[in-house]
Amino acid sequence: MFSHLAFGLILLGIFSILENIKNVKKFSLLGYLMILLLFSLTIGSCLDFLTEYGYQLGIYKDIVRMISTFLTINLFYLIFAKKIPKLVIGVDVFFILVFFIVFINGFRFPVYKSAVLINKFTYFNQFVYALYFITVCLSIVYIQVKLLRQKPTENLYDAKIRKWFSLIIYSSSFLMVVHTFFYILSLKGVLLFYFDSRVTLSSTKLMLILFILYRPKFLDDDRQDTSFNRLLVKNKGVLFKDFEFLFYFNHYYLNPKASLDDFALKLNRSKEEVLDFFKNEMDENFTDLLNQNRIEYFKELLRAKKYESFTIEALSEMSGFGTRRTMYSAFNKFVGMTPSDYINSLK
């Protein structure tokens, strides 16, 4: 069973690596980390597959597992904080040195097969594993707390990245809690049913590969990448950070005279470059993106009860719509009801 699972992860990992390399238009720190993590997870699955057929590869599996863990933590920080903090880099260096020493002295990660501990787990091994585990837990908890404290953003793409990233964090936390729960029960000798650490570890690999494979496609060109990317290649076309600054931070969508030609002019790019940007990086076309953000702004005005002081037509103009008819059509398309029905639902 586990040999088939490992083989499936190998194929999925190879497919994901090829997809990432094929779709990368320019290299970035985020792109490098994702591809390195995919390589690490795929190699780990290869070692798992060989182990199922009797090969003694414990130390290599543990080294790859440690590398995958720290690549994952660095990836989380880069996506969440838009950079890898110096403290995290310092912790990485510290643990690389520590694990280099402890691996030489016989440290192995605990492996449970059918509720039986395979590796001899000395007090020294328990201490090192506890240090490793606490560091990983603190990193994930820290990011979770920061996520919960973040204020909602009107930027739809930031919101999509946050939703995707939150799913990764909470899924990782769930698998970590499950693994720890069964591990503690096994140590106490009170586990009454089948437990195999290969299940939780394989599930974690599968989750990470799938989340990288199905990440928001505009993430690679997000603003956390561009400074590193400029060190490597000259950017061509529209950058996401330039699009984001004009469209969201300058509230371009509230301009009633907004058009693709005008938007391209303000970006100092050709209309063809902007069209290519929307085709390759966005989920919506330019008109839908305009109207969707206008509707979100319009809904904010309604939730603030601005309709008590202004007419629907006035609020429509504030939201960037040129005509009442255009607003009603867009509202019905993206909300599924009329503004009057929406107002009634707020009461």
Structure description:
With 347 residues, the chain is an all-alpha fold. 71% of the residues lie in helices and 1% in strands. It has two domains: 2-223, Rhopdopsin 7-helix transmembrane proteins (Up-down Bundle); 227-346, Homeodomain-like (Arc Repressor Mutant, subunit A), CATH 1.10.10. It contains 15 helices and two strands. It has a two-stranded antiparallel ribbon with strand order 1-2. Strand 1 and strand 2 form a beta hairpin. The longest helix has 33 residues, at 156-188. Mean pLDDT is 81; it is low at 222-235.
What key attributes describe this structure?
347 residues; mainly alpha; Rhopdopsin 7-helix transmembrane proteins; Arc Repressor Mutant, subunit A; 15 helices; elongated
Number of domains: 2
What is the rounded distance between the termini? 56 Å
Which structural class is indicated by helix and strand composition?
mainly alpha
Order of helices and strands: HHHHEEHHHHHHHHHHH
Tell me, what is the CATH class of the largest domain?
Answer: Mainly Alpha
Count of helical segments?
Answer: 15
Can you tell me the residue ranges where pLDDT is under 50 for at least 5 consecutive residues?
222-235
Radius of gyration (CA) equals: 25 Å
Major sheet size, sense and barrel closure: 2 strands, antiparallel
Shape: elongated
State the helical fraction.
Answer: over 70%
- Mean of the pLDDT scores? 81
Quick overview of this protein structure:
It is built from 15 helices and two strands. By secondary structure, it is an all-alpha fold.
